[in-house]
Amino acid sequence: MKGFCKGLAKSVGVLALLAAPLALTASPAHAEVSGETAFIFNTFLFVICGALVMWMAAGFAMLESGLVRSKNTATICLKNISLYSVAGIMYYLIGYNLMYTDVTGWIGSFSLLYNTSDAELALLGADESTEALIAAVVENGYSVMSDWFFQMVFVATAASIVSGTLAERIKFWPFIIFTTVLTAIIYPIQGAWTWGGGWLSEMGFSDFAGSTIVHSVGGWAALVGAIILGARKGKYGADGRVTPMPGSNLPLATLGTFVLWFGWFGFNGGSQLALGSALDASAIAILFANTNLAACGGVVAACMLTQLMYGKIDLTMALNGAIGGLVSITAGPDLTNHFWSIIIGGIGGVLVVLAVPLLDKLKIDDVVGAIPAHLVCGIWGTLAVGIFGAGSLVTQAIGVVAIGAFMIVTSAVLWLILKYTVGIRVSEEEEVMGQDKVELGMEAYPEFGRN
Amino acid sequence: MKGFCKGLAKSVGVLALLAAPLALTASPAHAEVSGETAFIFNTFLFVICGALVMWMAAGFAMLESGLVRSKNTATICLKNISLYSVAGIMYYLIGYNLMYTDVTGWIGSFSLLYNTSDAELALLGADESTEALIAAVVENGYSVMSDWFFQMVFVATAASIVSGTLAERIKFWPFIIFTTVLTAIIYPIQGAWTWGGGWLSEMGFSDFAGSTIVHSVGGWAALVGAIILGARKGKYGADGRVTPMPGSNLPLATLGTFVLWFGWFGFNGGSQLALGSALDASAIAILFANTNLAACGGVVAACMLTQLMYGKIDLTMALNGAIGGLVSITAGPDLTNHFWSIIIGGIGGVLVVLAVPLLDKLKIDDVVGAIPAHLVCGIWGTLAVGIFGAGSLVTQAIGVVAIGAFMIVTSAVLWLILKYTVGIRVSEEEEVMGQDKVELGMEAYPEFGRN
Amino acid sequence: MKGFCKGLAKSVGVLALLAAPLALTASPAHAEVSGETAFIFNTFLFVICGALVMWMAAGFAMLESGLVRSKNTATICLKNISLYSVAGIMYYLIGYNLMYTDVTGWIGSFSLLYNTSDAELALLGADESTEALIAAVVENGYSVMSDWFFQMVFVATAASIVSGTLAERIKFWPFIIFTTVLTAIIYPIQGAWTWGGGWLSEMGFSDFAGSTIVHSVGGWAALVGAIILGARKGKYGADGRVTPMPGSNLPLATLGTFVLWFGWFGFNGGSQLALGSALDASAIAILFANTNLAACGGVVAACMLTQLMYGKIDLTMALNGAIGGLVSITAGPDLTNHFWSIIIGGIGGVLVVLAVPLLDKLKIDDVVGAIPAHLVCGIWGTLAVGIFGAGSLVTQAIGVVAIGAFMIVTSAVLWLILKYTVGIRVSEEEEVMGQDKVELGMEAYPEFGRN
User: Fold this and answer.
1) Is residue B5 part of a domain?
2) Rounded to whole angstroms, what are the CA distances from A183 to A91, A148, B24, B98, C127?
3) Cβ-contact B195, B6 below 8 angstroms
4) Across the interface, which of C37, C126, C441 has its CB nearest the CB of B37?
């Protein structure tokens, strides 16, 4: 049941998955879409949507590059491309099996590597494609590695969230070690609970594309890290004053947000996990429309609220409003009343605008606003399924709390181990100089002096 | 006839759409592609191509960010993400119905909201996918919301064109109000005339993917706005001298152009409106090839002409040459002689190079060159269908004039109302300071001083 | 045999292509995917993956923009959009026929233009889609122009590699002339040897998506050009000292790398050349997974090695490590043991880190590191097929040497002709001033002073 179970928590997706094997045995006159055609559609959906989600890694890189100060820009670029790379390797070596292979309630298999199925190997290696060989492959519903690829890019998304919050002060290699453990073990274990068919899935917890499982998970890891790591030097004065440390390149941050928005169609759309029936195609159309509407609602709400609250519109709030709207709809983008998507996303935008100053009041230094957008809106979106969708509010809350508790404990342990062994924070002088000079020995913009 | 009618004006597309229902009744041996398979293909085409067109919003944002001065860069970013968001919501609330629902010659339905069809709701909500449920969904040819999404991103494109021309001086909120009315009412009304199956469609006006209906419409709104708003302070001297106000970040403008080019494959390719037959697939291949060749022609022509005219090659002319080539082919990208695409696009590139100084002579201040690229080339491309394609030159000209007149009148009324109520222009001091500081209270590049 | 033969060298792809015509004659019960459905899948794969590869042109533009100094940034942007445009036109006018039409061992047809097939024209122009018309089109397996488009973007990739190495000193128009000949004649001739079904293909040389045929070809042209052109003024001191000339915008370079990575899924995935069977879909899933894993391996290896060698991590090495990993897997991304992809890509990352200082020792000035990433890793990846894949190491080496020799000779002749006629290098004063001011009369970042 590898990878298959992500759909078990989805009212729409599950029908398609159950329908697929039936189609194989039905006569051609009844089966409008042949099993092999459905297999191609499903596989192609995974690889195309997976590529779109991979592209979100560029979005995070640009968003974070634009929101840090220029003395730390090259470092945040390096962190982003490195974390994606580490995520890819670790999820191949350990993570995927832990999340999807033989999950028995709490945890999958600790086996190493993950490869193409025997049926596919047989078909690929055969001199001729016989009906039996094709049938054996098609029975799985989609190609094994297409699912691996699609799931891999999700773990990278979770890891990307962490880098932005902790930017400008966390050392490169300790961050990479955290990412390694997060993507190899922590994320897959909690992922197995729902998408792997574990206990939360059995309880009826519903998180279509990962408001909690991906976004809040990244958000929790970021929040715990931010508390343990402490704020940037000079951010919070003793007198309670907050010193703004404005991002150095706002068009890049805007670009990053657009990249995320674009990639999110793959994130939510591909989470239908199947394209091989009219039902799946209809569902995916709805997923695209709702995803877009929620982001629109987030932007508009954030713009209006900042105008009302501050008399100005803040570009970074609008950008995080878009992301907040997207995260908010991610737990339940399969709503058939699309108007609710605007509302759910709009509330996400409001939450972002309210949570940013709240974090500052708590002296939690989140460089890019990832905690409001991914954690707060992730919780909201997951609960919204219990309000607007088919889920139960209680079950949704249980999922949020369980995964939150797991993430707080595991992240805290890991961050503290790193803190008291290799150390996680650059020195004061290094922070003033900037990580680019200290850790990389280079400048992101050597010619655009601030003098 | 929702959304369906966009294809009525297309010689190639219409065959495919007519063929689709036939396939459903034919026997399996004759129908090579089953109705359900075609439904999936058509729906998937819409969502993938729609996502590519959504990505063009990022292209406009980057193009315009790169071509304004840095003191207005954050504002233009905010305008771009906001206009896309407003377009999405308004086209959902009002616009789509006005353009596609029960169009009777001039106008569609003024009903609110637009949602999934009853047939799709029944399939999605059923315990089991029966043949009858599937057949009821498949009969429509594609999923209802996939078409909505695809049409939505087109209205956003039209709105994106306006922001660039009016940059650096138009106030944020009045611009957003204009965008709201443009995307909710103005664009949909003229769109109904052709793509909604209205009077221009009945007359035989042909605009495959919207040289006129999308690009000129945006261009007219921009032109009228530029005249009413006036030029930027200091742009045109009393002695007729034009003061160059060079864009602050040309690599971003280059990136934006590449994004537009990439997204245009979705724009023109998806406008086939169907992928579910060999004919459609062949047509789409031709659309991709012609789109690419026309853009290539635009770049090469613009480079050569600027070299000849000025002894230098101007990067921004090359970029606008690409866009001009793309706009020029958009009315008729279904040419089967691909060589003409290079010529049509090349003429677009020439028109851009000639129109830019002409606008300056008329003291019409178009910050990014959107009027040459989208309006002038939009007209040229629409007329070109009457020369190289299947259309009649007279009918094409009627469409250009009718839509132009409608846009001039409605835009002028709306801009003037805004001018004499809320005001549309920032004050002189604010213009000197830049909109980023005044309206947003932030800087796009706080560390890259000009001092 | 137009375009078709690219697959002949591919163990996996060839089965699918052979199977396609068989499916047409089989009875519906046996043929799970109808011939027309397969035709649509294959065509759609080409256009979508082709668009992704087109997008790589933006990646090269951003990578190179970020790695040159700001005084040459606008020029490198112009070169990138121009070379893509020239490639598109020349490959339409001459290149494609030379590479794929009636290849007899060494060379294809020198005929002009390339257009839609008669069968497709008949179907597109018919009043009704008859079975006979559809069958005639479907027999080809895919739409003719979709293949043209897909092959076109590959030649543009090869040309893109050259611009980066020679940046900051080569004149615009001579570079464009070189690109014209490269894309019209040089690339197609060597491409015909393998993908056109020529002598290397008959010998069994295997280069799945073009480690040698695309990347090394660009790399050889760049290397020869770099030697003939000479290093940038001041780069190499008489005392053997190397003066660093750091890139002016590293986030853009990072963005460019992510764009390339994203586009590479189209590059390698689309090179399966077919999607219309379970076998093809399985193969494509594997191609996506391996492509991703190799890039991950390249990044991680480059980061670790630079840390070990220099005590710092170099962002540009990590970026080139990603590209090196991608190039390395491109000759054989169809490995079914995915672990080897990490190793092959990782070795690519190591080669990049070692080759960059080696080139400096040889006083070969490669501005962006394209020779290590594309030429060195291209050779490595091609040989790796003889080690890990189905190919013979000897045959692979013959292909590498033959194409290398051809490229060295033809490039040298062309560069030398240009050098001694129009001249290829800007003057010393112009080099100091920067090409943007001299050749374009503009600045890429007029407000971000270096004073």
Assistant:
1) no
2) 6, 14, 47, 48, 57
3) yes
4) C37
Q: Is there a domain that residue B8 lies in?
A: no
Question: Going by C-beta distance under 8 Å and a sequence separation of 6 or more, which residues neighbour residue A89?
Answer: C293, C296, C297, C300, C342
For residues C316 and A230, what is the distance between their CA atoms, to the nearest angstrom?
30
Q: Report the residue from A261, A283, A318 with minimal CB separation from B124.
A: A283
pLDDT at residue number C28: 38
Residue A185 above 80 pLDDT? yes
Q: Say if CB B82 and CB A301 are below 8 A apart.
A: no
Report pLDDT digits (tens) over B90-143.
999 999 999 999 998 899 999 998 989 999 999 999 999 999 999 999 999 999
Check B281 against C48: CB less than 8 A apart: no
**pLDDT exceeds cutoff 60 at C30:** no
pLDDT tens profile A52-88: 999 999 999 999 999 999 999 999 999 999 999 999 9
A242 strand-pairing partners: A236
Q: Could you tell me which of A93, A133, A103 has the C-alpha nearest to residue A1?
A: A103
Q: Whole-angstrom Cα distance, residue C434 to residue C450? A: 13
pLDDT cut 90: percent of chain B above it: 87
Judge whether C115 lies within some domain. Answer: yes
Restricting to C residues 150-179, those with a Cβ less than 8 Å away from any Cβ of A are none
Token code pair at residue A113: 């590597």
pLDDT band at C450 (very low <50, low <70, confident <90, very high): low
For a pLDDT cut of 70, what percent of chain A falls above it? Answer: 93
pLDDT, mean of residues C6-23:
33
Q: Which two tokens stand for residue C412?
A: 């040298």
Closest CA to B414 of B234, B168, B162: B162
User: Is the model's pLDDT at A26 over the cut of 60?
Assistant: no
Judge whether A110 is closer than 8 Å to chain B, CB to CB: no
Which of C248, C259, C300 minimises the CB distance to A446?
Answer: C248
Is B425 in a helix, a strand, or coil?
A: strand
Q: Which chain C residue has its CA at the smallest distance from B303's CA?
A: C82
Q: How far apart are CA B49 and CA A360, in angstroms?
A: 41
A246 burial type by CB count under 10 A (0-12 exposed, 13-18 middle, 19+ buried): middle
Q: What's the confidence (pLDDT) of residue C8?
A: 32
pLDDT higher at A451 or C157? C157
Query: DSSP letters along B322-345, please?
Result: HHHHHHHHHT-TT-SSTHHHHHHH
DSSP C260-298: HHHHHHHHHHHTT---SSHHHHHHHHHHHHHHHHHHHHH
Amino acid identity at A8: L
> Residue C176 belongs to what domain range?
35-440
C188 falls within a domain: yes
Distance CA B285, CA B38 (A): 17
Positions in chain B short of pLDDT 50: 1-31, 451
Number of domains in chain A: 1
Q: How far is CA B123 from CA A263, B2, B418, in A?
A: 28, 20, 47
ipTM comes to 0.94
Look up the CATH number of the domain holding residue C300.
1.10.3430.10
CA-CA distance, B161 to A325, in Å (whole number)?
25
Q: For the residues C375-391, what does the mean pLDDT come to?
A: 93
Location of structure tokens 């965008």: B179
Q: How far apart are the first and last CA of chain A?
A: 60
pLDDT score of A29 more than 60: no
**Structure tokens, A228:** 């343990």
Q: Which two tokens stand for residue B5?
A: 């009618």
pLDDT at B18: 31
In a mutagenesis test of the A interface, which of B55, B81, B172, B262 is the best target, namely the one with the most A β-carbons within 10 Å?
B81
Does the beta-carbon distance from C129 to B315 stay under 8 Å? no
- pTM for this one? 0.94
Residue C103: strand, helix, or coil:
coil
